[in-house]
């Protein structure tokens, strides 16, 4: 289901009290992306049972009523855990995994997705009581997320996909184009959300529940306008930078890539003017960067990606002191954020406001 459409409230605050009433002596585990979020739902479930006595014959025991774990007077247990929290020794007849990914940085990290998958197999799957039901409810972020892996690698899973705007064969019987929750998000509001995410695959993944590989969905040729050249007047109004992602492998391995970008200040248009991309030894990389800087001119700011740690800082300082001492060199610290995560905001903003231009100069490969 899309964000902010009530999925967590449905499966947490509503479904768990119903289950505990209908199936006394059976146990529930709810898992969310962190312990605080899980405990928030534990508090709501506990308070729902206590405050709506006309609906429930089951009640929460006064002596076992923590927000992360409570027991009922019929013998059921309910546990509310973060996805990294241990479930050792706890068994569940109903296990709900709710919103297992916190943000796009986690979603685009292969290491995070693999770690989460291993946690699912090792810590959760072994805690199921015989005949248990597992419900995974989430907004889709990536084709390789937990729902993607479960449906591709395991049998006996039923998928109920509810896009924000109905497609053909909608599970709820909506006609194509009808919104999922019009009282909260009508078509006008959904269209505003879709336009704001132009240039990203986030709309299709998060709102339409149709994720695809991020690298494939990152760009579309139609987002760009191919230009022969800019006029001298237009080029004079550009603020230019040359951004480098340095590598040091002469045969195979990573590529050294440097793009010359220009921003047209009056219109906020962005232009890709030239790209250098080669596999070179460290010495040859330095020569290429220096030669390129001289060709670009001293009015072009040079950006160099700075990898985490002291070695990344030392590399940038080497270029500032020894390779490009007479140029304006600025380090760009990226931390552990994947390149795709860093590219998404730029593409979204650029495509929404101004189609980026690609100057058809000879490619420097």
Automatic annotation (TrEMBL):
UniProt superkingdom: Bacteria
Database matches in Gene3D superfamilies: P-loop containing nucleotide triphosphate hydrolases (3.40.50.300)
Pfam family, one: Terminase_6N
Protein name as catalogued: Uncharacterized protein
Species of origin: Dichotomicrobium thermohalophilum
